[in-house]
């Protein structure tokens, strides 16, 4: 690695809307590196989409690299006291590092991010063919944790996505939280094989001998063997994901917690993580949800879902900014990064923000490490509501798009940490996009305040999603749960004007049109604009 500073560092007096790019050696790069605020270090991803060769293509064979931007990624600097750490990858895979205290300066570069993991672990609404409401333990995780404590006293929840705090109520380090996530991924194969073996055993012990002769035993034997083989496919995918260490390649960072995480990351290639209790069912469910999130965000299987959720957002961005170069778009709750990637592909300077280590590990893998498409079978432990076993055994290919197909002028990055805590610089973004995100807050007014603060005067907030409040009925947690009518009043009271508003919009989530049960939300879509001058609040 070449420990040089990022090319294209702009003067603090740079005009943000100019779209001017810094250059070094003829390579174009733009980014904004921010310091870590009180909401956690942001090791995120950042992609420097350099095109030094005359052909305009990357010189390396793999997808565009996405590097880390600590505590807020490549974006306007936070005012919190922290340190910056950013990586940029040029066409020759050379890394450029920069460290320093947060300041108003701007480093320009590329990155990637997206969406959410509505997972399978909480109360979720399902539309059946008869349109009856059906409540399951299916969670609305959006792919990131919900703990918003500024000092990470519930780091286990940060890692696991609203998991319970450690039994002794002692603060859990980010190192331990990360270890738990890796441990859960590593335990996937054994757990999946056990679940399949249990289902197979129930075919025998759950039926009487005279009944078993009516079962298609040869067919079932074949199915269960195929399921066991599919577990091996998924295990190979996970092992490949865990074999890369670029996400936490931060050993030279001065921050102790990040150094701890880097040390843990070195153990990814070791014999085990030692000293950890077996992962909980909640943690294993987050792993299964993450695999399904690959299907939604990065496979052709999820194209219809993405169109329903992403297209209204992208249409507004393209209409609002017909010449997008130089305009900045922030996507909090980005999950595996597809929506932010699509925003960048449209020509914007896009940054995603994510809080969950499950999502951060997975998005780093798909955006930075995958050289050729990989196979995955994300539905194999789903034994209910199958018309045929072929649905359960369905194999997907990820990614379904060439990650090198971004335009020369785009910028794509990702930050890690709590949205409201690390995005604190006023008037710093041209647009904020919230897709299946606003209901992840304990107090949704915090999100409204943050968005109002970070938007440029005249900037727009584009929202699409339901209001399935994640902390609803969570013991020991407060949850401010507004109807959309009430939320609309809040938005107007803070000074926004609502320019577009449509609902309900049918938006499936990790759904299969061929299954007996469908997960679909009737979402609300709106576009709100920050005034050019502060407005008096509505009473």
Automatic annotation (TrEMBL):
Annotated stretches, region: Disordered: 1-151
UniProt keyword Transferase present: yes
Low complexity composition bias: residue spans: 18-32, 111-124
Residue spans of biased composition, Polar residues class: 1-13
Main enzyme class: transferase
A Pfam family it matches: CARME
Keywords: Methyltransferase, S-adenosyl-L-methionine, Transferase
PANTHER family named among the record's database cross-references: CARNOSINE N-METHYLTRANSFERASE
UniProt record similarity statement: Belongs to the carnosine N-methyltransferase family.
Protein name: carnosine N-methyltransferase
